Amino acid sequence: MKKRLVQELITVCLVFVVVAASAEGTPVPVAPPQAQQSVQVLDPAAATQAWLATVPRDQREKSDAYFEGGYWLTLWNFLLTAAISIFLLASRISARLRDFSQKMTRFKTLQVACYALPCLLIVYVLSFPLNLYEDFFREHQYGFATQSFLPWFRDQLTGLGIGIVGGTILLTVLYTVFRRAPRTWSIWGTGVAVVFMFAVVFIAPVFIEPLFNTYKPLTKPEIRDPILAMARANQIPVKQVFEVDASRQTTRVSANVAGVLGTTRIALNDNLLKQCTLPEMREVMAHEMGHYVLNHGAKLLTYFGIFVLIGFALTHALFDAAVSRWGSKWGVRGIADPAGLPLLVLIFSTLVFIATPFINTVVRVTEREADAFGINTSREPDGMAKVALKLGAYRKLDPTPLEEFIFFDHPSGRARIRMAMDWKAANLPTEESAKP
Ligand SMILES: [Zn+2]
After folding, report:
1. CA terminus-to-terminus distance, the chain
2. What is the spatial distance between Cα 155 and Cα 149, in angstroms, rounded to a whole number?
3. How far is the CA of 135 from the centre of ligand 1 (A)?
4. Quick check: helix, strand or coil at residue 395?
5. How far is the CA of 342 from the centre of ligand 1 (A)?
6. Cα of 378 to ligand 1 centre, how many Å?
7. Which of 405, 312, 398 is nearest to 365 (CA)?
8. What proportions of the chain, in percent to the nearest 5, are helix, strand and coil?
9. What distance in angstroms lies between residue 151's CA and the mean position of ligand 1's atoms?
């Protein structure tokens, strides 16, 4: 589901879906830290360093390179979105698509759909090269991808189809708001965006995710029963845990809570089942249950609603200023004119880009809450440390505080291991916590 412009159009929505997905990674051979064996009382700082020291230098360099490459990709993706938007405006392709839509039909609502369809296709084609590099070649280069080109491309087309349907529905509704409330659209538009996000999260587990992967109930009682026991202990109304065949696309370990209200589902992926021990799985699943118990879906929807409201208010002012200056040159007549869509995307994606550290921080803080819930529920500090190292295959383990603030939407491996060791030192008897 990585269509650039569509992604920008429903950026926050996708961020929200991504938030629902949590821990991922590839196997890293993990040895218990030897440094702890000689000490009587666990020193959390030393224990954290000992865990980090178990990762071989070449693996650390590889995962740092992969993750730092992601910093640049954030920039390239933004610049590409900006370049495509400016190109569609300056070449008047956007204005011509609007003229075309007006010839096709008299109905304003259908005109938006007639504009959106070719526009989204053009954007997909123009952003395909970067998409191909980021999602296919780069993932293969680092050994995370498991798909050959054709199955990958089929998933891309599926994502494109979802993006076009979802994007067209969202744009049709938004432009109705623009026509009816040209002065106050930022307020009503925020309402539309929040309802849209809620709807996507609600239908995703039932209608979207099955298009990419198969979900089936986890049947192994030795794994299922301890997980369901934790769910019962926390009043989570699930009767089964699902297993998803993520190995179709990737070697990463992951688990997620998806859906909202009646569609909530806890799932772990087959890589996790193959690569992790039961203590590690309990810890991961307790983290996911934390998202549920702490009501993170509703909280994130609220936070993103506030971000969108501020973003739309700023977009409103900047859009009007740009149209009064360049509107005639680009053939854009006002907010209700679909030809102005690339300008809206240009402004909104710039704001999202600037807000990246704040969006990441809101998500990261939420993830940290789920970590705290996870360690208290699973009581598996060593399992948590081992999982953090496994996730370190693709997420920089020991970043600077500034890096973590700007780029991390989950706590770093170091932060997670430190939480686990602090918990271990505080909660287990002395002899017990001193054991590796
Ligand atoms: Zn999480």
Report:
1. 41
2. 10
3. 22
4. coil
5. 33
6. 15
7. 405
8. 75, 5, 20
9. 28
* pLDDT score for 31: 47
Return the structure tokens found at 324.
């009064």
The reported pLDDT for the residue numbered 436 is: 54
Q: Helix, strand, or coil here: 331?
A: coil
User: DSSP state, 1?
Assistant: -
Residue 431, pLDDT score: 57
Cα 321 to ligand 1 centre (Å): 40
Task: Tell how far the Cα of 356 is from the centroid of ligand 1, in angstroms.
Answer: 18
Q: Is 314 exposed, middle or buried (0-12, 13-18, 19+ CB in 10 A)?
A: middle
**Three-state secondary-structure class, residue 105:** coil
Alpha-carbon distance of 195 to 215, in angstroms, equals 26
d(CA 190, CA 174): 9
pLDDT along the chain (436 residues), means of 10: 38 36 40 49 92 94 95 96 97 96 93 95 96 96 94 96 95 96 96 95 89 92 93 87 92 86 85 93 94 92 96 97 95 95 97 96 96 96 95 93 95 96 85 56
- How many CA atoms does the CB half-sphere of 89 hold within 13 Å? 24
How far, in Å, CA of 85 to CA of 5, rounded?
Answer: 9
Q: 91 CA to middle of ligand 1, Å? A: 43
Condensed to tens digits (0 to 9), the pLDDT of residues 312-361 reads 999 999 999 999 999 999 999 999 999 999 999 999 999 999 999 999 99
Structure pTM? 0.85
Q: For residue 236, report the phi and psi dihedrals to the nearest 5 degrees.
A: -90, 120
